[in-house]
Amino acid sequence: MAKEPVAVTIDHVTRIYKNVKGRKDVVAVDDASFVVNPGELVTLLGPSGCGKTTTLRMIAGFDLPSKGAIRIGGEDVSALPPNKRDTATVFQSYGLFPHMNVAENVAYGLRIRKVPKAEIDERVKRALSLTGLGDYAERSPGRLSGGQQQRVALSRCLVVEPGVLLLDEPLSNLDALLREQMRVEIRRIQKSLGITAVYVTHDRVEAMSLSDRVIVMKDGRIRQIGSPSIIYEQPDSVFVAGFVGKVAFFPVEVQGTDSGYCACSIRGKTVKAGSRAPEVAVGKPAVLMARPESLRLGRPDEGIVDGTVRQNVYLGSSIESFVTTEYGELLVQIDDPAGKHVAAEGERVSVSFNEERVRVLPANAE
Amino acid sequence: MFTKDKLLKFLLALAVFAVVDAWVFTTLRTSMRSNAATVRQNALVLLAKSAPEDPGLRDDWLASVSTSLPGGAAVYLVPSLDDPDSYEVFAADDAVLNLWHELAATEDAQKGLESAYYFENYASPVKAMLSNTQVRLFYAPITDEAQGELLGIAVFMAPETAGSGIERLLIIFALGAFVLFAALSGVARFARDSIVGYSVLVLSALAIVFIIFPLAEAFRLSFTVDDKPSLAIWIDALSGSHLQSLWGSIRLGIWTATTSTLVGFLFAFVIHRTSTRGKKFLSAIAQMPVISPPFSLTLSIILLAGNNGLITKQLLGLQNFSIYGLGGLILVQTIGMFPIAYLTLAGVLQGLDATLEEAALDLNAGRWQVFRTVTLPLAVPGILSAWLLVFTNSLADFANPLLLAGNYRVLSVEAYIQVTGRNDLGGGAALSLLLLLPTLTAFFIQRNWVSKRSFITVTGKPNLKLVEIASPGVRVAMTAGVWAIVAFVIALYGTIVAGCFVKNWGIDYSFTLSNIGEALSRGKEAIRSTLSLAAMATPVAGLIAMASAMIFVRKSFVGKRVLEAVMMMPFAVPGTLLGIAYILAFNKAPFLLVGTGAIIVINYIVRELPVGIEGGVASLRQIDPSIEEAARDLGADESMVFRSIVLPLVRPAFISSMSYTFVRSMTAVSAVIFLISARWYHMTVLIYNFSENLRFGLASVLATTLILIVMAAFGLMRLLVRDTGAFDKTITR
Questions:
Q1: From edge to edge, which strands make up the β-sheet containing A295-298?
Q2: Which tens digit of pLDDT belongs to each residue from B515-549?
Q3: Which chain B residues touch A93 with a CB distance below 8 Å?
Q4: B532-678 maps to which CATH number?
């Protein structure tokens, strides 16, 4: 299945649903632009209703942009119907043909393309063995487990060697364990084939673990594009910071923004935060974000803010300690807790953070 | 996908086509007009030759001209012997005379007279008004036989009507060609899925030509007398006697609906809410009358209780008993229509969660209290729905009253008599339109109000529990009632079968086989044409139903709801009206279809589509759209998706819609009775004819044959869509 991978370009795409019954129009996607490089897996991440699925459906051709253009491998496909596009979609609900067995399902796209019978058999076999379904060719999809159905759906797409593989929340109907397995498997297959892929999910862990790059969307607009580590460690907004992981916020006053560091004051103390979002400036409202793993507990009056441990949750490799402070409840992660002193529930503590690891964000914008 | 460029090109193409279309149209019209003018002039010349030499016959000739030229007239001029420039003028009436005096002085008239004087014909370009008709003048010499001497000059005032019918047709075709071109090229240019675009076009054309147009024609012609707008038909239709028939229909409908709902509820309750034995059998018998051909139940009632009925005459020796009339009608309609109520109420009672009744019992309510305060209130929307459905059916019923009404008058039969007996199509249309009023009202109440008030909750879990809320005594009484009705239904069917083998029912009950041979030989042609018409309509109706269902469920386009409403309309329109509308609309160009088999096939398709579409829609709603999207995504175009994915998935709905169409077409009567011809006859009409002529043996044989065919069709359907359970599991989301 060697084929030159192609790029996907979303060029100022807007999708407006006209609402006829006198209600307001809905802007599902608002002036989105991004490029998926050849062979790259990019994830569209966001809460439901953020426009990620609409974007995917526009790439597949099930929906048309109201404005802007979509290019696949340099060709403008904005007006082409789905059957004329070099994409294949793995659907959330699989969309397997119930009146065909597994092999027939996988062969469908090849039959449409009028591939010779012998070659169809050969390629179907190969696709099924790639996804570990070799023994299930004759089964009816209704008699497969969810994970197996998912693999059939994936094989059915891969067998036609599409330029772009589209995955619409493919794992949301699976249980947790299977989801983890399939996640790894999808990534393995995608990498081994070097196929360009766009993946839609609302699950941040899925997005982080799968993607070359993540696009975070909200209310139809793209909020940030970057590698999983950038998105997690250096979000540009309160929304992105909160959406991709647990985080604590402290209101701060920005004092200086020289070089990479950002000096700011919090409760009369001056802090030199490790990084800041580009929009942060002196005089503008700002917050300081800290991930649970950047927070530390100490004796009262020794940290930034004092509080009371409300609850400790023991997770083995770490303990999550919930501390009630005047900034609300802060989650502090204590790694490798064995042999460490852990403040008991009800104890007074102070919370401080690793200044290198915290980041200052604009407070008002989401 | 509108862009300015595309729109401009489209408009340009339209303009070019319009010019060509107009050019062809005007050329044809001109040549046709000149042709028509020549023909007319030749006729006038002949008319002039027929003018008598004898002055005594002159007035007769003038009078005869106005009949051979409707709306026109002639003036007979006799030149005076002394002065060639003055004439003696004769005309049929003063209006003509006055008009001539007005015109005589004009230059054109002088020219005409001069031509005639020299034995030349002259067609004047001048138009004049003769008592509200536009006429053209034509001057012709009147000569003696040898054509040597000028006896006089005929001036014809001929109305310009000839050829206008054909011209109208030409306009229709020219406009039609333009609309067709605009629609097709518009779809090809702008629609992303041109196949869907074309399908919508075809469906819209179907709906306009075969549903809206005939009904509109029926409506229009009910306001037209002699091609002029008039209220005369409606004044007559709304006169006392017809209003009485309307009331007759409604009264019958109320009675039948009430008794049918009661019987239907009894059956549904006994079968689905008690633990009686033989439920499958009871349910099968309760559904039987739905598929029985028209006239068959009536026939059997007449055999049992008619003037020479087995029970009334032979067994009881009644003299003054008559089954004909309201009572007999209620009886036969109830037997024929309680299955509708049963099927509706069975769904309701099955859907009611027995836990509710259990909860009521648990809260110490007595059985009767449970029924009164829980079961019955929950079933009320279903009961109303059943009542309205039967009511609509009873109003539209035509076959039973036709044979059994006696002196009782109902509108559907009245409309039929108006058309066939008095040859008054407009009157028939008006009467059947009158019937539409209560029918549509009931239909819309049922559709938009009652059916939305259902309490049934689909939990997906089969309701296996059964709470006996009937006390043993009540249960025994109800079960006995149900079995009595079942016995009666079986007896009715048994009577039809028995009728096949009886020599002369009512007089000579000896056994014979001769009916079978005679009926089959006399009915051979009818059986053949009935079967072939139904067989032609069946696959087409099935395919159109599934394609429409797919479009209605999955696609969005402008005017979808309107199209859907129009396509569903024939469900509520009485067959009598549709039949009359079809003969009114399709007995003239451009759709000259009356007398062909096509009109019957189209009528079947149009009438049975709504049920097929509903089935297809219900079954498509169960199917996850991503299945079709996956196929599209893998490269299949719309038609491929329909063939390889949708059709196999909706197969049960597809097959049942086809078998429904087949059975309904085999047992059609109310519309088809207007549309049959000598070549395309229908078995049901033949059954009616035999019954009318008291050939009950022959009617029984045909009715039995029809029942057997219908049952075979249903059996075949059951076989084809037997087990789909495992399959359905993966279709649904």
A1: A295-298, A348-353, A305-314, A318-325, A328-335
A2: 888 888 898 999 999 999 999 999 999 999 999 99
A3: 624, 626, 733
A4: 1.10.3720.10
Using DSSP's 3-state secondary structure scheme, residue A269 falls into: strand
Amino acid residing at B51: A
> Measured between beta carbons, which residues in chain A are less than 8 angstroms from residue B626?
91-95
Residue reference for tokens 């030499």: B53
Structural domain boundaries of chain B?
47-161, 236-296+316-482, 532-678
For the segment(s) B236-296+316-482, the CATH number from 1.10.260.40, 2.130.10.10, 1.10.3720.10, 3.40.50.300 is 1.10.3720.10
* Per-residue pLDDT reduced to its tens digit, B37-83: 788 888 888 888 888 777 778 888 888 887 777 777 888 888 777 77
DSSP B373: I
Q: Is the ipTM of this complex over 0.90?
A: no
Strands of B80-115, DSSP E:
87-91
Q: Give dist(CA A131, CA A154) in Å, integer.
A: 8
The sign of the CA dihedral B22, B24, B27, B28 is negative
- Closest by CA to B686, choosing from B562, B519, B509, B565, is B519
pLDDT in tens, B321-333: 788 889 999 999 9
Distance of alpha carbon B654 from alpha carbon B649, whole angstroms? 9
* A157 contacts on B by Cβ (under 8 Å): 634
- DSSP H or E segment with residue B659: helix B651-666
Geometric angle at alpha carbon B660, from B654 and B663, rounded to 5° = 140
A268 & A129 share domain:
no
Tokens of B110: 């002088």
The number of helices, as runs of H, and strands, as runs of E, in chain A is: 8, 21
Nearest CA in chain A to B726: A142
Per-position b or e across B434-443, b if 16+ CB within 10 A of its CB: bbbebbeebb
Q: Round to whole Å and give the CA distance between A174 and B446.
A: 43
Domain coverage including residue A309: 246-362
> How many angstroms separate the CA of residue A93 from the nearest CA in chain B?
7
Measured CA angle at B553 (ends B549, B555), to 5 deg: 105
Q: What distance in Å separates residue A184's CA from the closest CA in chain B?
A: 24
- Report the DSSP beta bridge partners of residue A334: A319
Measured CA to CA, the distance from residue B210 to residue A115 in angstroms comes to 44
A34 contact partners, CB below 8 Å, separation of at least 6: A9, A10, A42, A215, A222, A225
Verify whether the Cβ–Cβ distance B633 to A142 is below 8 Å: no
Q: Does any CB of chain A come closer than 8 Å to the CB of residue B626?
A: yes
